Each structure stands twice: as C-alpha cells, then as structure tokens.
From TrEMBL:
Name the UniProt record assigns to this protein: Putative phosphonates utilization ATP-binding protein PhnK
InterPro entries attached to this UniProt entry: AAA+_ATPase, ABC_transporter-like_ATP-bd, ABC_transporter-like_CS, P-loop_NTPase, PhnK
Organism of origin: Tritonibacter horizontis
Lineage, highest ranks first: Bacteria, Pseudomonadati, Pseudomonadota, Alphaproteobacteria, Rhodobacterales
PROSITE patterns linked: ABC_TRANSPORTER_1, ABC_TRANSPORTER_2
Molecular function terms from GO: ATP binding; ATP hydrolysis activity
C-alpha cells in the first residue's frame, strides 16, 4: 500500500466536537455575550482572547453548563449528549460535565476543596461519575496527578498548603481524571510566577499532544494563546470581532481591535 493511501483518512475532516450558535447573555442591562458562535474540531485547541470584560469567562461558563444564556444553542458531538445542552436539567448537566467536560479555573478556590487532600479532590470527580471502589479511586487519582506532573509525594496534602502552580496541577488532574472529551481552561496560568507559568504551559502542551484533548482556553495573555491554540477567536464587548487560524490572526490580524491587541503585545 502506498504512503498516499495510508495518509488519506487523516485528511477527512470530521464533524466539530463542539458547536455553539448565537449565544447571548445579559446581566441586567449589561450584555455580556452577543450572538457568539464557535466550533471546535476534535483534538483542536481554540484560544479566546480579548480585553477584560469582553465576555470570555461568561462564554466559558456557558460551555461548562454553569451558566444558562438567554438565547443560543450548544451541542457536543458525543453519544451521550443529545440536542441543545442548554436545555438539559441540572442533574443531566452535572452528569454530562462529570464525564465529558473538565475545567481549570484561574482561581483554584472555584475548582477545588482547599482543605481536602489533593488526591481526594481528584477522586471526588470519579465519585460523582459513579466510581465507588476505593483502590480504583486511589489508582485513578494517582494516574491523573502523575499525568499532570504533580509531585506524587504531596498527593495527600490539601491544596491550601500547596503553591499556586501545584494547585493548578491538582485542578488539571481533576479535570482530566475521566478523560473528558472537552477541556476548558480559564486563565489557567494567570497569577503564577513566569517560570511556573512556563512549566504549567509545558504540561498542557504535552497533554494536548499526547492525548489530542479538545481544548478551549481563555487568556488575556497572547503568549499563552500562541503557545497552545490552533485557532483564535477575538472578543470585544461581548462580540466575536475576528476568528481564524492562530498563525493567521497573529501574523495578519484583520480587525482594527485585533491589530491593536497583537501590536500591543509585540
Ligand atoms: N455574575 C455576573 N453578574 C453581573 N455581571 C457580570 C457577571 N459576570 C460577568 N458580568 C459582566 O459581564 C461582562 C463580561 O464579563 P466576563 O467576566 O465574561 O469578561 P472577561 O472577558 O472574562 O473579563 P476578565 O478577563 O476580566 O475576566 C462584564 O461587563 C462583567 O462585568
């Protein structure tokens, strides 16, 4: 068989894993999202950039089904995710998120029980998904922490006693413990020392390359987005002003606001 024949299936474009259409959300009279649409293909990383208050985190919370928008639809191309996910009740959302969507927040207090052990935090995710065997819980928690390059000798320490970088690794371990289809990252390295930031980014990059995890990452730091993202979406005042391949957007931004963002960074 020729090399061309072997390579051919890789060229077939699959369906997007994630499709969000015309998502809108207001807080009182403040429009946080206006008709935001996005699609992400399996194994792809979408980076979302924009100034503070542009709606990045609100959009991510919608994708994590924590927030219900006023309008719009959201589908995941998975056997256990039927129809518009915004229509699911609380229980169905919780189960779907536990199995298929992992999230890492900027603030570890949002993602972790700070006084429980780190391994317990990861195991909690497995418990929600129905795992009850103690040995399995411990083994899977250990494997997820190891994959997140967390120092295993500290796995019984509570996050409150750990450094910021280690706390983010516990969040990451919890997020990937069940090998979710989608990993959401909300400013995962913001607030960390630059050297620690680089190490956490290395871990994310390695995990993405090894496991081909589909990711959506929000950051105001274009360097972070540039390191990880295949495609970029630029948001301003709740709207998408530009979307495209990362290289294209960074090298030749079309919208005046994207030009301002990119040039401010250079
Ligand atoms: N829970 C909330 N209640 C009221 N207003 C909110 C709430 N969450 C967000 N907003 C408002 O919605 C808009 C978008 O906020 P959002 O946090 O999504 O932006 P962002 O781009 O993530 O900003 P940042 O980078 O500062 O987190 C802002 O005007 C914000 O003040």
């Amino acid at each position: 068989m020729s090399q061309t024949q072997l390579d051919a299936p890789r060229l077939v474009r699959t369906q997007p894993l994630l499709t969000a259409r015309n998502v809108s959300k207001s807080y009182g009279s403040v429009p946080a999202l206006r008709n935001v649409s996005a699609s992400v293909f399996p194994g792809e990383v979408l980076g979302i950039v924009g100034e503070s208050g542009s709606g990045k985190s609100t959009f991510l919370r919608c994708l994590n089904l924590e927030e219900t928008p006023d309008a719009g639809s959201y589908t995941l191309d998975l056997p256990d995710a039927d129809g518009n996910l915004f229509d699911l009740d609380r229980y169905a959302r919780r189960m779907l998120c536990a199995r298929q969507i992992g999230i890492v927040y900027q603030n570890p207090h949002l993602g972790l029980l700070m006084k429980h052990s780190s391994s317990g935090n990861v195991a909690e995710r497995l418990l929600v998904a129905g795992e009850r065997r103690f040995a399995v819980l411990r083994d899977k928690a250990r494997a997820a922490l190891e994959a997140s390059e967390f120092p295993l000798e500290r796995m019984d320490a509570p996050p409150i006693e750990l450094s910021g970088g280690m706390q983010q690794r516990v969040q990451l371990a919890k997020a990937i413990a069940l090998e979710p289809a989608l990993l959401l990252l909300d400013e995962p390295t913001t607030g960390l020392d630059v050297s620690v930031q680089a190490l956490v980014l290395d871990t994310l990059k390695r995990l993405q390359q090894e496991r081909r995890i589909t990711m959506v990452i929000v950051s105001h730091d274009l360097g972070v987005i540039r390191t990880l993202a295949d495609r970029v979406m630029v948001m301003r005042r709740g709207e998408v002003v530009e979307a495209g391949l990362a290289d294209q957007v960074f090298q030749d931004p079309q919208h005046a606001y994207s030009q301002q963002l990119v040039h401010a960074k250079l």
